[in-house]
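User: Need the bound-state model for zinc ion:
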Amino acid sequence: MFSELKNILKKFVPFFLGVKLRGWYQIFLGLWFKGNKYDCPFCGHSFRKMLAGGENHPVIYQKHIIGAGIRENIQCPRCFSKERDRLVYLYLTQKTQLLSSKVRVLHLAPEGALRAWLKDNKFIKYLMGDKYESGYTDYYYSRDVGYADVTNLQYTDNEFDLIICNHVLEHIVDDEKALAELYRVLSPGGTAILQVPISYDIAETEEDRNITSQEDRKRLYGQFDHVRIYGYDYPKRLEKAGFSVVRFNPFKEGLAGIAQRYSLNPKEDLFIGLKN
Ligand SMILES: [Zn+2]
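Assistant: Bound-state model below.
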């Protein structure tokens, strides 16, 4: 009922006014949840709790898919950053010098908080793109995001020093082609953040190109537009495309305190592909 009302409102409220209204709503939420337990590095505010979120399909819990399912405290009430954005932030700021030099960055399906933060950095040359699949980008999706098809990128070889392709590959039927493209446009020495939802209950990635209905995908893969569940073999897929794989888990690298403040999941490793 509430979401229907929201959809009707969106139809009649002009975009600029909608953005303004949402801004006020976020200020209200930020004040409502204000506290000392969690921090958001993007908006700089602290909260007693964050917003819950995620999809609720049995397969997610049966296979313990990390990065999926209903989770408490995942979304910042003030700027709507998610835990996946804060994990990338932590990696980039604590483990790399990438953003303090003149780097070329490609951000695919760009998340709002990360996008605003990267766009603000005058050092970097920042490009972003999305394929605009239906049901995926919402009403508030930034109007300045360009078009990009990860299986057929319009960029030249070795064009980017950093690629952020976060929670994208599980949507792409031909992920082998996507990985080849990402590898191609990454510069030698470059870094690609290739995070996906993953289950360590399964040795081999589960996928079937004949599964195409939204209902079946929800039942088997945990979301209407996911085309697989990545398993234990995920790093091997990255290696096959040419990447050297690095895993970053802040809880195992002396960053547990800050990771807890960002409300990150101790079980979640960030997968990073390097081009040597
Ligand atoms: Zn925030």
